[in-house]
Amino acid sequence: MSGRRSRSRQSSGTTRISEDQINDLVIKLQQLLPELRDSHRSDKVSAARVLQDTCNYIRNLHREVDDLSERLSELLANSDTAQAALIRSLLTQ
Amino acid sequence: MASLFSDNEQPPTNSNSISTVLVGKKKSLSASTGDGESYARWRSEKQQRIYSAKLIQALKQVRLSSSSSASTSSPTAQKRGKAVREAADRALAVSARGRTLWSRAILANRIKLKFRKQKRPRQTVVPAVTTVVTTGASSSRGRKPRVSVVGLNKKSLPTVNRKVRSLGRLVPGCKKESVPVILEEATDYIQALEMQVRAMNSLVELLSGYSGSAPPPI
Q1: Which chain A positions have a beta carbon within 8 Å of B80's beta carbon?
Q2: What whole-number distance in Å separates Cα of residue A71 and Cα of residue B203?
Q3: Which of A 28-87 lie inside 8 A of B, CB atoms?
Q4: Which of A71, B12, B21, B177 could disulfide-link B181, Cβ–Cβ 3.0 to 4.6 Å?
């Protein structure tokens, strides 16, 4: 990773970020997104689109985690004895 | 996105079912794509580790909610949900081993909040975890690059910059970072979140299978 930074073309005092680096990162990000990964126009998706979809995807994931944690808290609170025994048995594996 | 959450087989009445379920998921998911090493990291046995860490946290959550004097009415439902969410996030951040910004930010926030509060019911448990992690994070592995963003103006389409900034606000601890840092952290964070969702899904399924109760009324 550090080798990529030393490859930047600008020869000023501070290390500047090269566009290739940013493009690589955006491409890597694009491959993580489920919607853009299967798209055949893989080289025509703009960076703004990728970033926007990334934001949406992260928000979706956050919402899912919130929902799941609510369900988990209900489950844990409602059935005390059953799951307590379950957890204990799992922890002593 | 439905392809991420593979259907679990019915859990047998055996305490070894969880590891087999997770192993089954791991194998089915690792066959889909083969990216870099970060991909392998969040799909590998780290999943087992975070699972056990989360179980321990969840257990303490249960003790906390049962010992507190709150009634079982709706006002505390959200707090319990938030407590579970925070515990899950903390477990996720711990299993990141302090190599990423967002995990350090999550844990740092928890510590700050805990020091601000006066009553600390979980104090006996949390410092044992956090001290280990903070020593690991303070001896930082040099993952914080000092790169100035000024020279980015070749491609500084304001929309791209704006979107990167908003993305940085979503990822914990990356509000003021430079663009490549935000992008890197986002890739790792997304994979970690996906793993968290999968683990919580399987946990919910298993618990609801065992308790056998009807879904709670909304």
Answers
A1: 70, 73-74, 76-77
A2: 10
A3: 28-29, 31-32, 34, 37, 47-48, 51-52, 54-55, 57-62, 64-66, 68-80, 82-84, 86-87
A4: B177
User: In terms of C-beta density within 10 A (0-12 exposed, 13-18 middle, 19 or more buried), how is residue A69 classed?
Assistant: buried
Residue of A54, A58, A75 lying closest to B207 (CB–CB): A75
Structure ipTM? 0.72
> How many C-alpha atoms does B144 have within 13 Å on its Cβ side?
13
Per-residue model confidence as pLDDT tens digits over B117-174: 644 444 444 444 444 444 444 444 444 443 334 434 445 578 888 888 888 888 888 8
Domain A19-92 fold: MYOD Basic-Helix-Loop-Helix Domain, subunit B (4.10.280)
Task: Tell whether A27 is within 8 A of chain B (Cβ).
Answer: no
The domains of chain B are located at 42-115+163-202
pTM here? 0.62
C-alpha distance from A13 to closest chain B C-alpha (Å): 10
